């Protein structure tokens, strides 16, 4: 994008000192799978008159941190299509992963109400179909001069911070709705010291042999020996063998 805008001097902020030293030639790139990326980045930097590489910590680089948080907090289910696409091509998966990633990056996300691509570049990706059958935005951009097009890109980049913040707020609201829906189904369980309880056999009680499928999944009774504020309990069996700490959701009241 900077090359398209004919920018001659570029100032880059990177949160990795290793990458900066590798681009400056101070460090050698040892991993073979990273060499193509290093060569591509070095080739791009040579096209500018001046390039300034500045190191900035992740705490200070709020934009990168916000994008990283959005990426890591997305539901795993949204990436299932990418996994399935690559799994079908076990031999030549490396040739197909580009298509899968493109589909993932341009897919609308319910949590953020945006596509990952737009949160990085500030604008939606241009699909190949839009080149064959020009959409409204393509028709408008074709009528712009180079200077007007550069100003449009600059305005989109200036609005990117606000767009990322809005997506982060929508993500937090989405997670809050999920939490409320989940908490409605949760039955809080609290026990006192001395209470008799049963403990679920799996995955907590591993020192007992599991029977057939008709065997009860609850084991005990146990006596609550200690109660923690976090909702965990330490229990003992009739022989005095201690088990735990165990989360209260794996226990239930026992009535002799």
UniProtKB/TrEMBL annotation:
Keyword Coiled coil included in the entry's annotation = yes
Which residues are in coiled coils?
150-184
**Is Magnesium found in the keyword set?**
no
Q: Which GO terms describe its molecular function?
A: nucleic acid binding; RNA-DNA hybrid ribonuclease activity
What is the superkingdom listed in this entry's lineage? Eukaryota
Cite the InterPro entries for this sequence: RNaseH-like_sf (IPR012337), RNaseH_domain (IPR002156), RNaseH_sf (IPR036397)
Annotated RNase H type-1 domain residues: 2-71
Q: Which UniProt keywords apply?
A: Coiled coil
| Pfam families associated with the record | RVT_3
* Name used for this protein in its record: RNase H type-1 domain-containing protein
**Native species of this protein?**
Nicotiana tabacum (Common tobacco)
């Amino acid at each position: 994008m900077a090359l398209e805008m004919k920018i001659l001097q570029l100032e880059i902020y990177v949160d990795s000192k290793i990458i900066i030293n590798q681009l400056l030639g101070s460090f050698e790139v040892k991993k073979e799978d990273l060499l193509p990326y290093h060569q591509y980045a070095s080739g791009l930097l040579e096209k500018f008159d001046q390039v300034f590489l500045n190191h900035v910590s992740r705490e200070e680089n709020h934009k990168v941190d916000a994008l990283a948080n959005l990426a890591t907090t997305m539901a795993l289910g949204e990436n299932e299509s990418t996994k399935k696409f690559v799994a079908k091509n076990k031999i030549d998966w490396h040739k197909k992963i580009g298509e899968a990633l493109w589909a993932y990056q341009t897919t609308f996300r319910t949590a953020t109400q945006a596509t990952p691509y737009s949160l990085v570049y500030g604008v939606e990706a241009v699909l190949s179909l839009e080149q064959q059958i020009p959409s409204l935005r393509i028709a408008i951009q074709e009528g712009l001069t180079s200077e007007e097009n550069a100003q449009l890109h600059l305005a989109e980049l200036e609005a990117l911070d606000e767009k990322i913040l809005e997506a982060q707020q929508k993500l937090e609201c989405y997670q809050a709705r999920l939490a409320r829906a989940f908490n409605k189904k949760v039955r809080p369980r609290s026990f006192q010291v001395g209470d008799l309880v049963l403990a679920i056999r799996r995955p907590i009680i591993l020192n007992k042999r599991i029977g057939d499928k008709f065997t009860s999944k609850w084991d005990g009774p146990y006596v609550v020996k200690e109660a923690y504020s976090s909702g965990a309990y330490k229990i003992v069996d009739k022989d005095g063998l201690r088990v735990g700490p165990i989360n209260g959701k794996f226990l239930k009241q026992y009535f002799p």
